[in-house]
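Need residues for this backbone.
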């Protein structure tokens, strides 16, 4: 099992931000994670990465039970792309160094790298179409360029788990489709990592994401096959607003039917 979360809650300032979460992710599954702003998605991912610890309950990631192992070692097996990671990176660092730092799951490059590492970093940057950015510093790159570099960084250590927290934020429509194609290509590879994809936009859920977790007010609303979750009825219940889901070319499109002001 890749992730096993049992009855997990997380409190902050007497407020329960995650409540009694149960979620199991098996090897070979790719999950989409949907929920409104503030529902607890990033908090849950921070917990999977070991940045915060459950107040209650137990969890194991990649077979390691929390409290019994070195988190820095675990993080090397988890590729992570998120806007909160973007904020932590150093603006003066070059793209190639950022990609190389993925091997050690560190912010900044402190460890020694060899020619093999360099070859892998270059190959990943090529695959993600960002070879031209190699010597560019992070602060000079556009949002779409940064996302590509961050995905290359996340893949550097050949992770078993790849977490993409709203990777298409700030991308134009073509950059978004390109990035989604890259995600599909990563998922199709032999020994592909398990991917968790967080988004607000159902049209970003590629067919490869056959499982979906809906999270609402810090609780699991549904955790099931995507085809059973992404129905007009269930999503209308979830949002408490009538919505219509249309499926086209293996992707889903949502339109709001209700009046949001009443
Ligand atoms: N360290 C913290 N201290 C206090 N409150 C927190 C902390 N971290 C998160 N929260 C609160 O927990 C709730 C869930 O936040 P989280 O970032 O997980 O939401 P999210 O689902 O990722 O939302 P978004 O879609 O906007 O990214 C929010 O109300 C947030 O303000
Ligand atoms: Mg978030």
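Answer:
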């Amino acid at each position: 099992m890749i992730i096993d979360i049992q009855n997990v809650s997380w409190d902050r300032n007497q407020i329960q931000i995650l409540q009694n979460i149960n979620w199991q992710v098996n090897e070979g599954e790719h999950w989409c994670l949907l929920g409104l702003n503030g529902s607890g998605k990033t908090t849950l991912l921070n917990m999977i990465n070991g940045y915060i610890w459950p107040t209650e309950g137990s969890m194991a990631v990649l077979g390691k039970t929390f409290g019994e192992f070195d988190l820095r070692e675990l993080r090397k097996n988890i590729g992570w792309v998120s806007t909160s990671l973007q904020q932590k990176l150093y603006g003066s660092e070059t793209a190639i160094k950022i990609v190389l730092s993925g091997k050690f799951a560190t912010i900044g490059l402190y460890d020694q790298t060899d020619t093999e590492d360099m070859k892998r970093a270059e190959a990943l940057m090529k695959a993600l179409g960002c070879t031209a950015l190699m010597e560019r510093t992070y602060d000079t790159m556009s949002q779409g360029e940064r996302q590509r570099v961050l995905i290359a960084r996340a893949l550097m250590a050949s992770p078993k788990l790849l977490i993409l927290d709203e990777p298409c934020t700030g991308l134009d429509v073509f950059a978004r489709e390109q990035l989604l194609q890259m995600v599909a290509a990563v998922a199709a590879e032999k020994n592909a990592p398990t991917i968790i994809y967080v988004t607000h936009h159902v049209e970003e859920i590629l067919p490869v994401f056959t499982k979906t977790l809906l999270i609402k007010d810090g609780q699991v609303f549904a955790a099931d096959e995507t085809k059973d979750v992404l129905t007009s009825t269930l999503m209308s219940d979830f949002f408490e607003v009538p919505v219509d889901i249309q499926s086209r070319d293996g992707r889903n499109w949502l339109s709001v039917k209700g009046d949001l002001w009443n």
